[in-house]
Amino acid sequence: MAHKAGMSPTRRQVLAGGLALGGAAALGGVPAQALGAAPGSRLEAALARVAILGLDWPETDAWAFGGRVPGQTLRVRRGEEVDVILSNALAEDTTIHWHGLRLPNAMDGVPHVTQAPVAPGETFRYRFTAPDAGTFWYHPHSRSYEQVARGLFGALVVEEETPPAVDRDLLWVLADFRMTRDGAIAEDFDNRHDLTHAGRLGNTVTINGMVPHEEGVRAGERVRLRLVNAAVARGFTLRFGDMRPAVIALDGQPVPVHAAPGGRIVLTPGQRADLILDFRGDPEDVVEVVDEHYRGQAYRLVTLRYRQEWPLRTQFAETPSLTLNPLLAEPDFDRAETYVVEMGGGMMSGMSSAIVDGQDTGLREMVMRHGLAWAINGIAMTHDHLAQPLMTLGLGRSYVLDFRNDTAFEHPMHLHGHHFRVLRVNGEKVPHAPWRDTVNVPPRGRAEVAFVADNPGDWMLHCHVLAHQHGGMMGLVRVD
Ligand code: C2O
Ligand code: CU
């Protein structure tokens, strides 16, 4: 799809190949923690040593929540309280943003906007009710292009009162790391190439924090697979051999059950998908899970191998569906006001200048002097000017955001505190108009979404390629 990835995949395959010799890494190894259910549980952001490359390789220095990458999976039931005390053992400020949660603004984790940054040695208590069942995640919103790339991210699963009947509930947190030859995380976080192109693409793709190899499955089992794209720049377009996964939710919100078009599951940074996978093969069959997001750079992400076990069943019941989360307000299309969101900048774009701190600034100077390369509606936003909103929306009113991408790169645009219905991409109707919190706007393309501005506060709207966000492609949407 889109443009070419900047880093060579050969390096990744060298690493993955090396690991393969050392034996299979077990997947699905993120234990479900009832952390969120224990009020006031601590979640520490700190340095940690983790086995990104697999258990046979030396550990890698990372930054982690609770000592692991991904951080502890938080699980609560819909309507229950998430109550987590972030304690900051890093040498710099941090916060936690709860991606996709429609929570009160003060809990949203955006430094200088919704809270003071959590300084080294300090704590902050996040406490809110999880309004929607689904698959969500959390990550810092302080210098996130570096903090997330060093390993600070984790999943938040909000369970339905009656979850669909499956044999296994499996979570894959997808991410990639840029590793040096010595197995360290490369420190080139703020470089101009990533800033002006596709962001920081890693060379080592991981599932649940480790380079994957094989995952055992059982004939006749039905699996709910929760996918989270926590990568700072990489998109994934996954195919599961010739299986036709059923999609039951996107970005945490249920969708009418449908087979993934062409069997492909697309996840740009920040996005999630919940799938039902029915394993109809026989013992010893294999399913190659392939990622073909970047043209000419398809690679095998992981192999699913049917174990030598008696099939669990030979007939599958109808695919279970999820019931819609309540409290999602339907936009009033007759009255909706439209805001155009023009996205410009980066290499190979027509944008020659943008407003930086109130001054018209040439692209070259933006890059060289300010570390900026992107703009929304002609403004390259810096954290110093973030207080001035891009738009002010009336509480309870309906809006259409019309994203127009005038750049050579795809931009997954994320709005905090709300879900929107994705109406059209490149002028074409999107089937089921799914509720999402992150919409991918294709290169030189367009996406239209609609929502009710029903959550008061100042909410970030930004590209989830985190180098783009940091490089100016962000702003505030004020709802009052
Ligand atoms: Cu997942 Cu503003 O972020
Ligand atoms: Cu972007």
Question: Would you mind describing this structure in some detail?
Answer:
The chain is mainly beta and 480 residues long. It has 5 helices and 34 strands. The strands form 7 sheets. Strands 21, 24, 26, 28, 29, 30 and 32 form a 7-stranded mixed sheet that branches. It is globular, with a radius of gyration of 21 Å. CU-O-CU linkage is lined by residues 97, 99, 139, 141, 270, 414, 416, 460, 462, 464.
Radius of gyration based on Cα positions: 21 Å
Oligomer class: single chain
Q: By helix and strand content, what is the structural category?
A: mainly beta
Q: Sketch the major β-sheet.
A: 7 strands, mixed
Name the shape in a single word: globular
Q: Helix count, per DSSP?
A: 5
Strand content: 35-45%
Low-confidence stretches: 1-37
In round numbers, the mean pLDDT is 92
Helix % is under 10%
Q: Using DSSP, what is the number of strands? A: 34
Tell me which ligands are bound.
Answer: CU-O-CU linkage, copper (II) ion
Distance between the termini: 39 Å
Write the layout of secondary structure elements.
Blueprint: H1 9-22, E1 32-33, E2 41-50, E3 60-65, E4 71-77, E5 81-88, E6 97-99, E7 123-129, E8 134-139, H2 144-147, E9 154-159, E10 168-177, H3 192-196, E11 204-207, E12 214-217, E13 222-229, E14 236-240, E15 246-250, E16 253-259, E17 264-267, E18 272-278, E19 286-291, E20 299-306, E21 337-345, E22 353-356, E23 359-362, H4 363-370, E24 374-376, E25 391-393, E26 398-405, E27 411-415, E28 420-425, E29 428-429, E30 435-436, E31 438-441, E32 446-452, E33 457-463, H5 466-470, E34 474-479
Parallel strand pairs: 1-4, 2-5, 4-9, 10-13, 12-20, 21-26, 25-34
Antiparallel strand pairs: 2-3, 5-7, 6-8, 8-9, 10-11, 13-18, 14-17, 14-19, 15-16, 15-18, 19-20, 21-24, 22-23, 26-32, 27-31, 27-33, 28-29, 28-30, 28-32, 33-34
The structure holds CU-O-CU linkage and copper (II) ion.
